[in-house]
Amino acid sequence: MPELPEVETVKRALEPVLAGRRIRRMEIICGSLRAPVRSDLPELVANRQVKEVTRRAKYILARFGHGTMGIHLGMSGTIRIEPARAALRKHDHVQWLLPAGVALRYHDPRRFGMVFWSDGDAEHERVANSGVEPLGPAFNAALLAKLCAATARPIKLLLMDSAKIAGIGNIYASEALFRARVSPLRPAKKLARPEAAALVRSCKAVLRAAIKAGGSSLRDHRYGDDRLGYFQLQHKVYGKAGESCPACSFPIARVVLGQRATFLCPHCQR
Ligand SMILES: [Zn+2]
Question: What does the subunit section of this Swiss-Prot or TrEMBL entry state (predicted)?
Answer without folding.
Answer: Monomer.
